[in-house]
What does this fold into?
Amino acid sequence: MGEFSFQYPASFIVFCLLCGLGLSLLLYYKSKTWNDRPRWHLFLLGFLRFLSGSLIAFLLLNPLFKNFKKEIRKPVLVYLEDNSRSLIAKDSSWKENYIDQRTSILKDLEEKYDIKKFEFGNQCSSDFTNTYNQNKSNPYAAFDHVSDVVDIQNVKAVLLHSDGIYNSGRNPLYHPLLKLSPIHTILQGDTIPEKDLAIQRVYHNEIIYSGDKFSVQLDIQAFHSNGEKFNFQVLQYDGNGTKKIYESSENIKSNSFFTTKEILIDANQVGLQRYKVIVSNLSGERNTRNNQRDIFIEVLDSKKKVLIYALSPHPDLSAMKDALLSNKNYDVVIKYYPEAVGNVDQFTLAILHQIPGLNSSSSSTISLLQNQKIPLIYVLGNLSDLGAFNAIQNAVSINGNTKNQNESQAVVNTAFTLFTMSEPLQSAVPKFPPLSVPFGNFKMDPSSSTFLFQKVGKVETNYPLWIFQNQNGNKSSMIMGEGLWKWRMNDYINTNSFANFNELMSKMVLFVASKDDKRKFKVTQSKKLFEEVEPIIFNAELYNDSYEKVNEPEVKLDILSKDKKSYTYSLGKKENYYELNIGSLPAGQYSYKASTSWNNKSQIAEGIFGVEAIDVETNSLLADHNLLRNISEQSTGKSFSAAHLEDLKNLLLEDQSSKSIIYQHLDIKPLLNEKWIFFIIAFLLALEWFLRRFWGSY
It folds into this structure.
């Protein structure tokens, strides 16, 4: 039912009518033009002008039309179906009967409930496939999905059909949804343990450096196998097949046996290395798919070595060293003036702290580093020699002295583009304590880029606090003050971690130490090791002689597996680059070769990657009904076996608290926005004009 309301008193409508009447009288009262026309002509024209004038004045009151709409909403019932492989790995005879019964019961419940259906495994979906082929089960993520896409306030119950086995994500028992809605669990699967020997978990580093030893730790579990003996092997794949690098045997001493094995392996080959760990099959063991696991290790050539050369001990040195060592790609060596740095070729980068210094001659060391084209990072302090500093680099010139210091806080330069910072780091940098910076005038070279400006007191200046330079491929960085250790401590006080400071140091070193990549054809992947169910995406970039991105020629991609299976693709063209999603591949080690031609020159890019077998669903096929019962108990729901779905249906149909809700919405529309009113006014004015013309007034 609708009604009108006004922003002014309703009595103003009288003035609207008087306005229309006034306009009509002004134009037609005692008008001599109509003396020879019938009186009804005059009255009709006056009435038309009265209507149009009154309507225009009425709209000036900005009238509103309010309309109340009613909507009836059924209570929401969410049905979650576990679509993982563990449900049918041991027995699939229940499947067809359950699907028919489920379909019938959900149809009966539709009369009372608005049913939202989802299935989950690797991910949650509203499409029902009934395939039970997902390699992972993540009920916590399924609860998250329900919370995101369904109005929880109107959810009366959640039905969860599962075997209780989850192997991805967090424990669903602690999800907030349990406090918001009752969850009725439908119990599926076998809870009777049988003889089984399995590799439950494998722990190892994904990246190792050549020449190091790395540890592989495995958790091995056995059920109902007391007195049995098993063999344990580790195999390494190479170009000629596999070779055994470890073997042992062990006795199972109980029906609920658990042991942890740790093996040290030499990383003696550079590249992506594939290993297989195997435990022997037991007599009478049905599930043998969990008796072996493949693992991939990327062996890098060597770590990057960073030299910190300092004038004297300082807390900044420890702060920078700890930040760099948080990245396993770096080794850090600290030396003090006048100690010799030794063979500089071993260093990827050098950080000079207060070098060159007052009353010290370190020019020979600096010249040695510069001649070997070692990227340099300068950190100035109150012992720095500004004259010598100005002489050895051209990124910035400082006219001042170190006896007088400014306490300068950092201000991020929003126009800086050499690298990006995470949002937490961008928020943290302006809150860092000030650095002690030499007082003076700073003159920047055009080839330099300011990363941070100085803020002295409350005044933001255009003086640099931290700059970077890339001059013909020679990169360097200058930090204008000391006190970086304060930044690290402040980061820990505010965030309970050193993550932001570590990121800042890593970004600096990564940019300065990186060499400009002059390749005209590059192919990259999102990562080197993929899971068996993951899509594998390739990106390629092609540059012309001016190093502008082009994508005119076709790019061919050939992938070759270790067992000599080949796959050929053509990369798709995007805006100015190439991209291809080849989907998933079987587990194994692969090499690829991408090729194209530009300006009659062949361009080739090669690489390797690995695909890891994911079969966690078959590691354990023992249903965990206790977990499902606990979920129902904590959420005030109930548990039902899959054979008693009728009991669950009756419970939901008899629930008196689950009733449809009537919602009333108020829809307010200003009449000024209604086009039909303007058409009426235009029609009245046009009709009046037409009659005046027709009757000879004009």
